[in-house]
Amino acid sequence: MFINQLQIPPILEKLEALKRRLPVSHPKWNTIQEEWARRYAGFRGEKTVYYYLSLLDDHPYHIFHGLRLANGSHFFQMDFLLLTTRYALIIETKNIAGELLFDEQGQLIRTINSKTDGYSDPVAQAQHHQRSLRKWLKAHHFPPLPVDYVVIISQPSSIIKMERSDPAVRQRVQPVSGLHNFIFRCDGAYKREVLDAKGLRKLGRLLIKKNVPLETDVLKDFGLTENDLLTGVECPKCGTVPMVELKAWWKCPDCGFHSKDAPIQGINDYFLLISPTFTNSQIRDFLLLSSRQKTRRMLAAVNVPFKGENKARVYFYKPD
Q1: At 81, phi and psi to the nearest 5?
Q2: What are 171-208's pLDDT values in tens digits?
């Protein structure tokens, strides 16, 4: 069973907001688009693996997505962790199309449309996570649960070529269609129970408690400031910014679309890009709203949480 469900990574949500709010003419727009595309491809790969994992029998497996754990001052993040009473399996996913060559020098070389690119070695990354998880389990006083790993190529059309002579590495790079068989081989290889059911639940609770999602400031990461962003209400239909504020609606000057709820995306963009809190004045300036009273009514209508009263009121982000 899945202990935590697959969710869109916060960094991907922030990059999507940044794409909405940065003019296409900005010199960094293409860089941000490329980073978004790379992150989105990775998330699509994780969705594919998530689907395959969802087809497994729930009972023997506790499955975690995106755990980021600390070993002292260092962190490691696993795409998926499959946990049983007999072993743990780290699942590293890569959604890369083309011909993929794992060479003897520890490189991943992708060839597609006669173009060759190098990628960081997912096997080395999975092995690092394997060592890190063993260290983490020991530091938290769990018995030496065997930790295995597999690298899953989630793009079905990819062709995997393996030059590495080590059979242990060769069998740990699999197409997504081979994921179930690899798990079943682990079931057969690790027969001794290291944890009882109570210990498994205890470990699962601790993993969730110790999970530290990565916090990112995308404006800072790309050397941007709030002044680089487009202000105003975005048209939900065509993406034009700003819409024209009417008495109870917003109207797009380009496509003519009318909406009462159009500011909601802008509120979320502010939370994602600028700050997890804002005042009436701050969101009013960001969305180019006409009055304090109308802004207050709008925020009340969409149930944005707040603390304080009158001009001291501060609104804050509350995830679902």
Answers
A1: -130, 120
A2: 999 999 999 999 999 999 999 999 999 999 999 999 99
Rounded to two decimals, the pTM is: 0.91
Ranges of each domain in the chain: 10-210, 230-316
Give per-residue pLDDT as tens, 34-63.
999 999 999 999 999 999 999 998 788 999
Residue indicated by tokens 């916090």: 215
With contact defined as beta carbons under 8 Å apart, do 5 and 67 qualify? no
Residue 148 bridge partners (DSSP): 89
